[in-house]
Amino acid sequence: MLRSVTFRAWLPVLVIPPVLLVDAAMVDEKPVTWTGVVVAVVACLPLVLRSRLSFVWMGPLITAGIVLLLTQIEPKNTLVLIPAVALVELALRSPRRHNLWVAAGLVPCVTVGVAPFVDDVGDFANAVSRNLLLCWLALAVGDIYRERRETIEQETRRRLGDERLQIARDVHDVVAHAMVAINVQAGVAAHLIDRDPGQAHAALRAIKDTSGEALADLRGTLGVLRGDDSAPVRPAVGLGDLDELAAGLRAAGVEVSFEVGEVGDVPAAVHAAGYRIVQEALTNALRHAQASHVRVVVAREPEAVRVEVDDDGVGKANGDGRGSGLRGMRERAEALSGTLESGPAAGGGWRVLARLPA
Length: 358
Known about the structure:
Elements: H1 2-28, H2 34-44, H3 55-72, H4 81-93, H5 96-114, H6 121-192, H7 197-226, H8 247-251, E1 255-260, H9 268-289, E2 293-300, E3 304-311, H10 325-335, E4 339-344, E5 350-357
């Protein structure tokens, strides 16, 4: 990368001086001398620092170089190459509005710069037009490249933001669901350890299974972040795997029922989003709703998959409302151009209703 930047900085000094010297030799029919070579290189040297110096300094340096060229080797048609390179750099650094003002300001600058060296009115008009168009072209090239670079950077930032949000949602869903289930099952084990050791032992086994699955999911997610292709990754989960989410609730004495329709042909993204929405809704029901029964319905509609989770609890979904669970469910639905509604149900309890395009 450093070599590429260095080469780009020195490129004008390698390319422009020969062009200037050939132009001067063709106009005046004089041979190229070592003095002319040194003068051409020195005049182009400010361009090496074009990405480091402000244009307050670049302007006088380039002007001095042009005056040196005109007094020593007298190039004609190619002299505009030096300010053109500087104008490309200016457009790369500046917003479009600034570049438009520069384009307007070039008209008097080019006119004044050409006037002392052209006597004929027709030649003067042609020289001004030619140099002005070349300078405008340099500005346009730099501006187009800058806009393209900014577009790519914005798209890159957007994708990185989407990926971070996706990872944050996945980690939240996995950890929250597992921790709530472990907390409830640990409470059951502590309560029954003396009265019903068998049931307490079953709760401890459930804790072991739940924590093992959560750790596997976290290792897979961290492996993706590290770019480790050998990291263990669970098979993709979907709406057909919802029953595995009920273990924690059932261990806590909450009855969970599923009504899952035929959704085998819907996209994988809908399966994944529906699964995570149900997972978060069940986690919230276990943490906050104090429910005794939760009903999960997944049905295929003409244009969407309807995912509905109802509980008969106290009508609370996310504690004091400051958690990220409800927001994460809504973001998952909206990422697929779907919708999600949540709130107290008409007959009591809490209801989450998502419609994901099929």
